[in-house]
Design a protein that fits this description.
alpha/beta, nine-stranded mixed beta sheet, five-stranded mixed beta sheet, 15% helix
């Protein structure tokens, strides 16, 4: 539970059976969680409901999914269960919320809805809801509780304690946003050491199941560093931290786009082109997709994310592709576009080719672009310099890498070339072209 103390509620801890016989279904959930690797001392049963991490309720179906899913090592941390693509609008029914609680619920929903995600979020009543979460005021509680997704659907209820009233709107907004985070699949950022945000407490448990790191987010938790920390402070603002936004856009990218984070490893939507840059970190779109955007971390100056439109376009096949290395000098398939970024090394595909992938060294210097022949003509090309600010021809894809500089070509356009700094190798500009 997200609260100042570690006591979930007045009730019995799981696996302590002196408080009355547990219902059969409850025992099955507990058994499944133990088998999945959650520590016994992190599983609690309160009023017949099973919780892990103090505030995340686990249903019978969700506990079965934790056992059956194949986990690959991927902080923001997520559960194995996520919301499916069929859910395009999540509505929240807070009909009993009044005053500061009603205002905070509106602000929490706004936190999610103002981001470009795979789903919209709105307060009920609203039209077009794919799923409705019920928001309940829980008497005598300072904090909140919720559960994990199951069957591709968010968890059905968030419980918000009325004991939060003295903390004000921002803290209530923080708790509501946090509990909604659990319903769409987030675990606590400090799950491995609750004392980071709570002052005491240990590891909620992982064992390779149920706590999967989200690429592109920090690997350590800090006080105030994430809205998904286990416990809250009286000074919370109710707003997402940078890592929270990165995690959301990674797990639930805007419909029609894929974000490939290759800052610390390959992120490829196809391997049909082979290892075209051995020993380097590669981002590669799938066949039918050109690269249309790239981002740069302002502090580290590392390349982070490549953007791919996922609608599928026959003009952009992945056949006959090859790598064009420009780590030490220009390497261009055409000069018809002129010197579109003077003073920088340029990698540019030929006039009938498009960029399908980008590679950077393990030291984070851009080295190559993957060029593929397509039904394209390199017309109306323009350089978009994104070293120092966003340089986007369109914002339809949303803020797909928050707090980082983004270069992006507009709808129907593609990256025909990329430039990098001579020293350091940070990306500098995209060459955006029309077919």
């Amino acid at each position: 539970m997200l609260r100042k103390s570690l006591v979930l509620a007045v009730g019995c801890s799981a696996l302590m059976f002196g408080c009355g016989e547990q219902p059969d279904e409850t025992q099955v959930i507990v058994d499944n969680l133990v088998e999945a690797g959650f520590p016994a001392d992190d599983i609690m049963v309160v009023d017949g409901k099973v919780y892990v991490g103090r505030d995340a309720e686990v249903s019978l179906a969700a506990s079965h999914e934790l056992l059956t899913q194949d986990i690959s090592t991927q902080e923001q941390y997520r559960t194995t269960n996520l919301v499916g693509s069929a859910v395009t609008k999540i509505c929240i029914n807070g009909s009993t919320f009044t005053g500061a609680f009603s205002t905070a619920l509106d602000l929490a929903i706004q936190n999610y809805d103002e981001m470009a995600l795979a789903f919209d979020m709105a307060r009920a009543p609203s039209t077009g809801c794919s799923f409705t979460i019920n928001a309940v005021i829980q008497p005598g509680v300072v904090g909140g509780s919720a559960g994990f997704p199951s069957g591709g659907l968010p968890y059905h209820t968030i419980n918000i304690g009325d004991g939060l009233a003295p903390y004000g709107v921002d803290v209530i907004e923080h708790v509501i946003t946090h509990e909604i985070g659990h319903t769409v699949g987030f675990r606590h950022t400090d799950y491995y050491n609750r004392s980071i945000s709570c002052g005491s407490g240990g590891n909620e448990g992982d064992a390779g199941v149920g706590a999967i790191h989200v690429p592109g987010t920090p690997t350590t938790a800090t006080v105030g560093g994430s809205l998904m920390n286990s416990c809250f402070r009286s000074v919370e603002t109710g707003e997402f931290a940078s890592g929270d936004r990165t995690a959301l856009t990674y797990l639930y990218p805007p419909r029609g786009y894929a974000m490939l984070n290759f800052e610390s490893g390959d992120a490829r939507r196809t391997s049909s082109t082979g290892d075209w840059a051995p020993g380097e970190y590669k981002a590669e779109c799938a066949s039918g997709e050109p690269v249309t955007g790239l981002s740069l971390n302002p502090s580290s100056r590392y390349t982070r994310v490549a953007l791919c439109p996922t609608a599928g376009d026959a003009r952009f096949p992945h056949n006959g592709c090859y790598a064009r290395n420009f780590s030490t000098a220009d390497n261009r398939g055409t000069s018809a576009t002129g010197d579109w970024d003077p003073g920088y090394y340029k990698g540019e595909c030929g006039p009938n080719e498009f960029v399908a992938g980008v590679a950077q060294s393990t030291a984070h210097a851009i080295t190559s672009v993957l060029c593929c022949p397509g039904t394209v003509a390199h017309t109306s090309c323009a350089a978009r310099v994104f070293d120092g600010q966003d340089a986007r021809e369109s914002s339809a894809s949303g803020d797909w890498d928050p707090d980082n500089w983004k270069g992006e070509c507009g709808p129907g356009r593609y990256v025909g070339g990329l430039s990098r700094s001579v020293s350091g190798g940070a990306p500098h500009a995209l060459l955006c072209c029309s077919p």
